[in-house]
Amino acid sequence: MEPQSIVHPFPPLYNKNSKSLILGSFPSVKSREEMFFYGHPQNRFWKLIAMLYDENIPQNIEEKTELILSNNLALWDSIHSCTIIGSSDSSVRDVIPNDLSVILKNSRIDRIFCNGALSYKMYQKYIFPSTGIDAVKLPSTSPANAAFSIERLIENWKIILE
User: Fold this and answer.
1) CA-closest candidate to residue 129, choices 159, 100, 161, 95
2) String of b and e for 5-40 (b: at least 16 CB within 10 Å)?
3) What is the C-alpha separation between 18 and 74, in angstroms, rounded?
4) What domains does the chain contain, in order, with CATH numbers?
5) Distance separating alpha carbons of residues 42 and 61, to the nearest angstrom
6) CB proximity list for 125: less than 8 A, separation 6 or greater
7) What confidence score (pLDDT) does residue 45 get?
8) 3 state DSSP class of 54
9) Which pLDDT score, from 0 to 100, does residue 51 have?
10) What are the C-alpha distances in Å from 103 to residues 22, 57, 90?
């Protein structure tokens, strides 16, 4: 598979009531096809959020949007564009970070959580200097993070409920 230079293809998900921002790194091939966050069926993100908030696991984009916004969450990614091979975090090069200012100005975001190491690394390197908001690094919900069971993910992700 050849490296591709890709610009993030869909907008952030938030509204004026969003208080906590969950940042991924960059959408997977499946997410880019679906034009929405965490589109890979093996990614545990939607199951995890539903379990944390004691709600049904969303089955479509409308239900996913409702789950996020009704719990005052926001979703976005650290990376605006990059060179990437498929969905591989380890292949990411030539990063241009996302600008969070529009979200921060138009919401009540005061907490930022990074879904995985790459998101956190990109946030710290490129975005933190302009926001000044400390981010919390959480274990990735990606199927590539097989070391973490859904139970271990829940244990670590409970912090977003505080």
Assistant:
1) 100
2) eeebeeebbbeeebebbbbbbbbbbebbeeebbbbb
3) 6
4) 4-161 (3.40.470.10)
5) 16
6) 97
7) 98
8) coil
9) 98
10) 12, 26, 27
The pLDDT value given to residue 1: 85
Segments in the chain below pLDDT 50: none
Q: Cα 80 from chain centroid?
A: 12
The pTM assigned to this predicted structure is: 0.97
What is the rounded (10 degree) CA torsion for 75, 78, 82, 88? Answer: -80
The tens digit of pLDDT for each residue in 110-156 reads 999 999 999 999 999 999 999 999 999 999 999 889 999 999 999 99
Q: Residues near 34 by Cβ (< 8 Å), separated by ≥ 6?
A: 61
Distance CA 84, CA 40 (A): 17
Neighbours of 108 (CB within 10 A): 14
Q: What is the DSSP string of 83-141?
A: EESTT-GGG-EEEEEPP-HHHHHTS---EEEEESHHHHHHIIIIIHHHH---EEEE---
From residue 115, give the alpha-carbon distance in Å to each of 2, 69, 92, 104, 119: 26, 18, 16, 18, 6
